[in-house]
């Protein structure tokens, strides 16, 4: 259990507290906010904060209703509007509940293209799974000992490619760190019989740190079950709407239906495929925090700490944010689509609470995936660029494999994750021990780890054990965090925090690296970090930061934003 104690700073206690956010409403017109979150919080839709509910009291109903398949998004929208009207005329006889209405569409349409077509005043979320083709499925290996009596694990959404959502049927947000009670509040609205009812969101890297202005709307954590959701599958699609209510929170079924109908009237069924080109903006300025002049002494200070015999510090990850100002606003969804074009081996995400900037990312790193009792994670550390030719790429790979400094950095990450999984699992498998994982622009040392949980639905324990990994914080975690707090002069926010979803059957979280916060009128903050271990060189680390943000900066150098029908 030492690993759980090690990470205890990063998640909250089990004590239930009263959230400082309750029901709020705003829209595109200036409507007074009924409540503030110790600061100015505005919302673009009407909803309830599930953290205020009694997590010990089960919902009256949790169900999914599937309509007949249709051929187009417009037909799906009409079908959903009719289904919502039917629920209004024949309401479920419960004081609380969650109902998902879904309409299959017999064609594959990009979820990100659908999201781009929607009104940007709504809260938005997007989550796209990465392709794991060519890598062993350790969860499947574990499942041969587990479920269904036939050696197969449940995978009702195995071909789900990506999800986009607008509005919130219910959201969960607070300034206090994410606690076990908050997790139970989310789980209250999920069901194994309705696996696609999911809460998408994320948490801050350090929930105890001071929240800067740009991160205020996200709180210490933010999750939401979308009001309207578009699911992209391999070969088909689905449009869905979710209604959630709880009379004890003064959010009735009638309130929820009215809010959903208001959102449905604004849903656009005209979806155009975004061309994955550059963004049509020009960079006016780019400033780094810290500057190169300040970064070098910071690395040297970290190296001095690592060398001290009195210090147990083995590694610390030092980050940088780069403020990019452009001549026109950056469209975060178009930017994400551009990242997606080269990110098949990565997760893409967008998280935008009410009245907030958009936090987007193209992260290669999985924090964990849970399917029933199976949980898998991975170690990803050490970085090299890709080579201009196959021969040069192989030379760089060999250098990465044989580097003692990089092997040390990677081994610290892998062994720490293995130790943490051992604290919550009966059996842990590591496969392979070390290989090279190649992405579009960089390559890393990599290993997969998987285990069998002692108890089902222990996502909170998984989070407590695994976040933060040494790949984004350091080791020991608390000592590294204190040094980061001392050295870094900016708020990481959700950069390097867990980003993903909780579901009734399955949950999955990526690590929010290779990410940017996009603000209207303020350009973007692009985040990157590097691991400092014995043998690190400040110049090499600075160059690695530039390499990691290049996927973002390359697309804002030319003005060629285009669409195709």
Overall 3D shape: globular
- Arithmetic mean pLDDT: 87
Task: Provide a count of the helices.
Answer: 13
Helix content: 25-40%
Main β-sheet description: 13 strands, mixed
Distance between the termini: 55 Å
The radius of gyration over CA amounts to: 23 Å
Spans of at least 5 consecutive residues whose pLDDT stays below 50 are 1-7, 16-45, 147-156, 559-565
Provide the structure class.
alpha+beta
What is the strand tally? 25
What percentage of the residues does DSSP assign to strands (E)? 25-35%
Domain Chorismate-utilising enzyme C-terminal: 294-548
Catalytic activity: chorismate = isochorismate
Protein name: isochorismate synthase
Cofactor: Mg(2+)
Mind explaining what this structure looks like?
With 565 residues, this protein is an alpha+beta fold. It is 26% helix and 29% strand. Strands 1, 2, 3, 4, 8, 9, 11, 12, 13, 14, 20, 23 and 24 form a 13-stranded mixed sheet that branches. Strands 5, 6, 7, 15, 16, 17, 18, 19, 21 and 22 form a 10-stranded antiparallel sheet that branches. Strands 10-25 form a two-stranded antiparallel sheet. A hairpin with a 2-residue loop joins strand 8 (228-233) and strand 9 (236-246). Helix 2 (73-89) packs antiparallel against helix 6. It catalyses: chorismate = isochorismate. This is isochorismate synthase. One of its GO terms (molecular function) is isochorismate synthase activity. Residues 294-548 form the Chorismate-utilising enzyme C-terminal domain.
């Amino acid at each position: 259990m030492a690993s759980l104690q090690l990470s205890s700073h990063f998640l909250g206690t089990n004590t239930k507290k009263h959230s400082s956010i309750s029901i709020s409403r705003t829209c595109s017109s200036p409507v007074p906010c009924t409540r503030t979150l110790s600061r100015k919080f505005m919302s673009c839709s009407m909803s309830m904060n599930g953290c205020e509910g009694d997590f010990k009291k089960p919902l009256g109903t949790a169900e999914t209703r599937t309509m007949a398949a249709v051929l187009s998004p417009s037909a799906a929208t009409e079908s959903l509007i009719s289904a919502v009207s039917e629920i209004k005329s024949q309401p479920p006889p419960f004081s609380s509940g969650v109902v998902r209405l879904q309409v299959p569409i017999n064609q594959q349409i990009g979820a990100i293209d659908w999201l781009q077509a929607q009104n940007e005043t709504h809260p938005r979320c997007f989550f796209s799974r990465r392709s794991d083709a060519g890598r062993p499925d350790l969860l499947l290996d574990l499942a041969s000992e587990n479920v269904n009596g036939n050696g197969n694990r449940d995978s009702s959404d195995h071909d789900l490619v990506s999800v986009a959502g607008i509005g919130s049927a219910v959201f969960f947000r607070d300034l206090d760190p994410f606690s076990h009670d908050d997790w139970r509040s989310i789980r209250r609205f999920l069901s194994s019989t309705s696996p696609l009812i999911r809460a998408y969101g994320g948490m801050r890297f350090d929930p105890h740190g001071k929240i800067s202005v740009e991160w205020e709307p996200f709180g210490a954590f933010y999750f939401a079950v979308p009001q309207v959701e578009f699911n992209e599958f391999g070969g088909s699609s689905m449009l869905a709407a979710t209604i959630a209510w709880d009379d004890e929170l003064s959010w009735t079924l009638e309130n929820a239906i009215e809010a959903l109908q208001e959102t449905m009237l604004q849903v656009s069924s005209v979806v155009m495929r975004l061309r994955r080109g550059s963004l049509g903006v020009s960079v006016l300025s780019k400033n780094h925090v810290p500057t190169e002049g300040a970064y070098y002494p910071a690395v040297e200070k970290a190296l001095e700490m690592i060398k001290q015999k009195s210090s147990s510090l083995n590694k610390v990850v030092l980050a940088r944010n780069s403020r990019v100002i452009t001549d026109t606003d950056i469209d975060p969804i178009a930017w994400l689509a551009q990242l997606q074009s080269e990110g098949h081996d990565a997760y893409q995400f967008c998280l935008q609470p009410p009245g907030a900037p958009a936090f987007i990312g193209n992260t290669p790193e999985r924090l964990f995936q849970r399917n029933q009792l199976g949980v898998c994670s991975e170690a990803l550390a050490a970085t090299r660029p890709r080579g201009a030719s196959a021969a040069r790429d192989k030379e760089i790979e060999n250098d990465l494999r044989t580097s003692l400094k990089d092997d040390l950095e990677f081994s610290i990450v892998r062994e720490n994750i293995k130790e943490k999984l051992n604290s919550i699992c009966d059996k842990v498998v590591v496969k392979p021990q070390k290989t090279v994982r190649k992405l579009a622009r960089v390559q890393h040392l990599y290993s997969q780890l998987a285990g069998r949980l002692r108890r089902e639905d222990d996502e909170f324990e998984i989070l407590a054990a695994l976040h933060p990994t040494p790949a984004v914080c350091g080791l020991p975690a608390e000592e590294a965090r204190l040094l980061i707090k001392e050295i870094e002069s900016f708020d990481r926010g959700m950069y390097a925090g867990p980003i993903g979803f909780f579901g009734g059957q399955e949950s999955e979280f990526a690590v929010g690296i290779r990410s940017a916060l996009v603000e209207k009128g303020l350009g973007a903050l692009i985040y990157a970090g590097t691991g400092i271990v014995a043998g690190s060189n400040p110049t090499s680390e600075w160059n690695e930061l530039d390499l990691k943000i290049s996927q973002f900066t390359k697309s804002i150098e030319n003005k060629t934003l285009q669409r195709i029908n």
